[in-house]
Design brief:
The complex is a heterotrimer of chains A (378), B (400) and C (308). Chain A has 378 residues and is an alpha/beta fold. Chain A contains 15 helices and 10 strands. Chain A starts with 20 loop residues before the first helix and ends in a 7-residue tail after the last helix. Chain B is an all-alpha fold and 400 residues long. Chain B has 13 helices and 2 strands, in the order βαααααααααααααβ. By secondary structure, chain C is of the alpha+beta class. Chain C folds into 2 domains: 5-31 and 260-297; 41-250, Alpha-Beta Plaits. Classes of the chains: A alpha/beta (378), B mainly alpha (400), C alpha+beta (308).
Chain lengths: 378, 400, 308
């Protein structure tokens, strides 16, 4: 994506009225296009913002490293954080808020009360369940309790990051805290999951954009992951795919093939088994800001079966096999002729023919002897 | 010369018999593997050569040899040469066994063999398909052949200890006698139809069968060569039985007489073959087709040499020459079938085929099974002209 | 006329030869040329447009539920069929020669007069709606005669399956009720393979050659070959370089059907042969019985039992 023509966003300005409508519309249009929404969404977005009807967001943190929030904050072209913060009314966020302690807890309960049934509950981090969930408590309440309480009155629940989606690194073997993801705690309730370690902030942008402007959710798969980001594997859209098809692989880190940017499949890239859009939408405005782009094999951080389970440098099977760089010939050599078979056939046929001819000779000799018995017998 | 058919008698489980059973057993195991693993699991057949040797060998060659029943039947019943009677029963038994083996072999070869019963659903028949005609004809003919074998079984039951079997024989034999001409007519019609159609099968491969073998006369040539093969087979069977079993009464003159018919047909075949190629201006191919030319010449040689050998009446009476000529005749007919089905068939560049060892073993095993059953039947039932089991060995040649 | 063995044999041989020859050498008038159905669909493959992306192969496998042809090159798994097979209904092949490169899409040509349909005993392979040649496994015995018959070696067999089927392109006719055409034509990014009505695509193919004579080998394969096919080919190089066999305009099953029907028409010949044979045998048996009775009357006690 070419970001050079984008206007600078006024950093820190959360008041959209400080920016001209034309500039704002331009940014919204580009952002909408980036996540596959029609251009008309930009108009609706601007209207909603102008009318002041911004959906409230309550952002919960549990067993997390805050990487997902940080990756959100690290974007600038477009400034996803700013966009989101312009689009929504952030009611509770432990990292971004200056307040702490009792005050912030009161703010949380007020917001839940005032916005019951309307707010978006974003969850970052896994939820421990062992020993009644004592391993993560905020304000004396376990994570499980908080989640169930806040989520029960939410209009939409979004699990951002692998930890919130399925347990992530917190749930890696042996999972001493019994960490689980939001969909495994809130069984039966629709949860939009955005796995990734960290999650790609543009996926959050897309989901929130759609909900905030159109009031609908993106189509999700059986794990609750939006299809616009998680339907295809890394492998299908990877920039190094031609190398894979042509058989050009990195054999060892630091060698010539690595320097030339060859495919990382043999050093353990999990791309062929990982559903995510990192290859299409990098994490920051710098090109190649994703693992493979930087020369490290994908670790499959969005996939529960792969992430923190399959060793980083072990190869995985390819989910959808495709043809290599070479083609089938017009006439392929097909058919096997083994020397053993020719030998056996030759022996059998030769044996039968030989035996037959010999027998015939013998019979002729016998007949001759019978006819001329006076001839001497040897 | 006694014309009485008697069981040969003698021990069943001779060493030779056991070997035959072992070979049949091996093929049985391989067939089991094929049932669960697919046809490709034991054969070398590919999409370029979808019919390996099982079709030309197990089906077409076995039935060609088994056509002795057809050939002898023609001579004996249609041309009313009663002297061939002693050869009828063994020829018919070879026929029944040969065709049963061929039919069984088809079942083994068919990919979806459980659908074979659908050949009875005549409303689905595609009357354009030559293979359909072959299949229906062969299936019917197997039944007819076994019906032709029943008189021998009924006769042995005439002197059975079981009174029930004796009653069956008493009723069955006269009935068979009455039905006889109509069964025989069927036994003449059916092979005429399908033996020629075994050649017509390849009329569909107009762009894949080499012009040395592709001709509208394929049905006629296959019919002629099946008769020569059949006669050759009968002579071979006659000779081998005489060599192996002292109680078998053999009349060499009979075989010699059969061979005369065979020789005439061999010449007719060669004449038609060459004339057909000349008519289509293809004689040049006899020299310019590489491997295929070689096989063609070999084929013709295997027809001409026995024809020459059998041209002389004195030579015909020599059982050794008779046997060798018969062997060459059967080889010639078989090679003609192999050439049409495999050598002359060219699916295009890249494809090659030779049977796998397992494929060969199945063919060998099935042939062994057929021979074993024949020997068993000949020893237990009145099939062959035989003297008493403990009689003096008569010389194989008879009086002038 | 005395019916000697020799004379009868000669007669049979002569009659047989004459009959067969006559039936055959007159075949030009025997079998009507088949026409495609009026609503016949077709596919046009333009080799000059194909870039070898193989999206058609992938989509075909997806639409027909076919497994990949798993091949490991240097330890890395790919779907790399080398030819049509029991798991591959279409394959892109590469031709490189005399400085030219061309891609070829191998698949069933859906002939107007299909050899496989003529050969199939119970009609498992049949030419159905819109002229598509389809396969129905419930009528298939796996005899593989269709493979012998097809001049293009299209039908493939599942050699290593205990319940094998014949596998070949069926133009995704199972998608027709959904209003969709063949998957390959749907996904081709360059319209190298197109789906449409036979009349239109035939005209389109001719038009392309006329408008761009420098670009094409001046022939549409399938226009007249083997009596016409419903999959047409355009190419820059001669068609035999792309693996299409050198065939004539005569439909593949024509000669065989003419001879077979010539011999068996109305089943007259078999019935006649049966009747004649039965008559002869009855007469011979009666004669034989009469002779026996005569002999028995002349020499009582020495009669030998003749057995059939």
């Amino acid at each position: 994506m070419d970001y050079t023509h984008w206007p600078d966003r006024l950093l820190g300005e959360k008041d959209p009225s400080g920016v001209s409508r034309r500039v704002f519309l331009k940014v919204c249009t580009a952002a909408a296009a980036a996540v596959g929404l029609p251009a008309s969404a930009a108009e609706k977005m601007a209207e909603k913002v102008a009318s002041g009807k911004k959906p409230p967001v309550i952002w919960l943190h549990f067993q997390e490293c805050t990487g997902c929030t940080e990756s959100l904050l690290r974007t600038s072209h477009p400034g996803v954080a700013e966009l989101i913060l312009d689009l929504v009314s952030l009611e509770y966020h432990e990292t971004l808020f200056a307040a702490a302690g009792k005050q912030i807890e009161e703010a949380l309960h007020e917001s839940i009360r005032d916005n019951a049934g309307k707010y978006i509950c974003v969850v970052e981090g896994a939820i421990p369940t062992k020993d009644d969930g004592v391993f993560c408590q905020v304000g004396g309440r376990t994570a499980v309790d908080i989640l169930e309480d806040v989520a029960s009155k939410a209009g939409l629940v979004v699990a951002i990051g692998s930890c919130a989606s399925f347990g992530g690194v917190a749930a890696a073997e042996p999972n001493p805290t019994g960490a689980k993801g939001v969909p495994q705690i809130l069984v039966g309730k629709p949860v939009v999951a955005l796995p990734g370690c960290p999650a790609n902030p543009y996926n959050l942008l897309g989901t929130v954009l759609q909900y905030a402007t159109l009031g609908t959710l993106p189509a999700v798969d059986d794990k609750g992951r939006p299809r616009f980001a998680y339907a295809r594997t890394i492998h299908e859209d990877c920039e190094r795919r031609p190398h894979f098809d042509a058989g050009r692989f990195v054999q060892k880190f630091g060698d010539e093939s690595h320097r030339l940017g060859y495919c990382l499949y043999k050093v353990g890239c999990k791309g062929p088994a990982t559903h995510a859009n990192c290859s299409l939408v990098p994490f920051g405005e710098v090109g190649d800001s994703w693992p493979v782009g930087l020369g490290h094999p994908c670790i499959g951080c969005t996939e529960q079966k792969v992430a923190f389970r399959v060793p980083m440098f072990s190869t995985v099977d390819v989910e959808r096999l495709t043809p290599p760089g070479t083609y089938a010939p017009i006439f392929a050599e097909q058919g096997k002729i083994t020397p053993l078979a020719t030998g056996v056939a030759g022996l059998v046929v030769g044996g039968l023919v030989g035996a037959g001819l010999t027998l015939g000779k013998k019979l002729s000799a016998e007949a001759k002897r019978e006819e001329h018995p006076e001839e001497k017998q040897p | 010369m006694s014309d009485v058919a008697r069981p040969l008698g003698g021990r069943i489980f001779t060493p030779g018999f056991v070997v035959l059973l072992a070979l049949a057993g091996v093929s049985g195991v391989l067939i089991l593997v094929r049932v669960f693993g697919g046809v490709g699991s034991i054969t070398a057949m590919t999409d370029g050569y979808p019919w390996g040797i099982w079709k030309p060998l197990n089906v077409v060659t076995f039935t060609g040899v088994a056509a002795g029943a057809y050939g002898i039947g023609l001579l004996c019943y249609v041309l009313n040469r009663g002297k061939y009677h002693p050869l009828v029963r063994p020829a018919v038994l070879v026929g029944a066994l040969g065709y049963s083996l061929a039919g069984f072999s088809v079942l083994v070869d068919l990919g979806r063999w459980w659908n074979a019963w659908k050949l009875g659903e005549f409303w689905y028949f595609n009357l354009n398909s030559v293979l359909l005609e072959v299949a229906i004809c062969v299936l019917t003919y197997v039944g007819v052949l076994w019906v032709e074998v029943t008189p021998a079984i009924l006769e042995s039951w005439q002197s059975s200890r079981s009174s029930r079997l004796r009653r069956v024989a008493a009723k069955g034999l006269p009935f068979m006698k009455k039905a006889f001409p109509f069964i025989i007519a069927l036994a003449i019609l059916l092979p005429t139809m399908h033996q020629s159609s075994l050649g017509s099968l390849y009329l569909v491969a107009i762009y894949k069968l080499h012009p040395l073998w592709l001709t509208p006369l394929l049905p006629l040539l296959f019919l002629l060569s099946c008769l020569t093969m059949g006669y050759g087979g009968v002579i071979i069977m006659d000779t081998l039985l005489a060599v192996a079993y002292p109680t078998y009464r053999r009349d060499v003159k009979l075989s010699a007489s059969v061979s005369k018919v065979a020789a005439a047909m061999l010449w007719v075949y060669v004449a038609i073959r060459v004339a057909d190629l000349a008519w289509h201006s293809r004689l040049g191919l006899l020299f310019t087709s590489g491997w295929k030319s070689f096989f063609f010449w070999l084929e013709i040689a295997l027809f001409v040499i026995p024809a020459l050998l059998l041209g002389n009446p004195h030579r015909r009476r020599d059982p050794g020459i008779l046997f060798r000529a018969a062997l060459l005749t059967v080889m010639g007919g078989s090679l003609y079938r192999f050439d049409t089905y495999l050598v002359g068939y060219d699916p295009g560049p890249g494809w090659s085929y030779f049977p796998s060892v397992n494929e060969l073993l199945v063919s060998i095993g099935l042939a062994s099974a057929g021979i074993a059953v024949f020997v068993f039947a000949a020893k237990k039932f009145p099939i062959l002209s035989a003297g008493p089991a403990h009689g003096v060995r008569k010389p194989a040649q008879s009086t002038p | 006329m005395k019916l000697t063995r020799r004379s009868l044999l000669k007669g049979v041989a002569a009659a047989g030869a004459a009959g067969a020859a006559g039936a055959v050498y007159r075949r030009a008038e025997a079998r009507a040329k088949k026409q495609p159905p009026p609503d016949a669909v077709a596919m046009l493959f333009d080799s000059t447009r194909c870039i070898g992306c193989r999206a058609c192969m992938e989509k075909c496998k997806e639409a027909n539920d076919l497994p990949p042809d798993r091949v490991r090159l240097d330890g890395v798994p790919y779907d790399a069929p080398i030819d049509l097979s029991g798991t591959t209904k279409t394959v892109i092949k590469l031709y490189q020669g005399s400085g030219k490169t061309a891609f070829m899409k191998a698949q069933c040509l859906h002939c107007v007069d299909p050899a496989c349909v003529s050969a199939c005993m119970l009609g498992a392979l049949n030419k159905r709606e819109y002229g598509v040649v389809t396969y129905q496994k419930n009528k298939c015995v796996g005899c593989r005669y269709c493979q012998i018959a097809c001049a293009f070696n299209v039908p493939r067999f599942e050699w290593n399956s205990p319940a094998p089927q014949i596998v070949k392109c069926e133009m995704c006719h199972h998608r027709f009720p959904e209003g969709k055409g063949p998957a390959c034509a749907e996904v081709c990014p360059r319209e190298a393979i197109q789906f449409g009505k036979l009349k239109e695509l035939r005209a389109e193919a001719q038009k392309r050659i006329q408008d761009n004579p420098w670009r094409y080998h001046p022939d549409v394969f399938g226009d007249t070959e083997v009596g016409g096919t419903q999959v047409l080919y355009l190419s820059a190089v001669p068609f035999d370089k792309l693996g299409l066999p050198k065939v004539g305009d005569e439909p593949v099953p024509a000669m065989g059907e003419t001879i077979q029907h010539g011999i068996y028409k109305g089943f007259i010949a078999p019935i006649a042969l049966y009747a004649v044979t039965a008559y002869v045998v009855v007469r011979n048996v009666r004669r034989g019985e009469a002779e026996e009775q005569e002999e028995a009357a002349r020499k009582p006690g020495e009669g030998e039992e003749r057995k059939p």
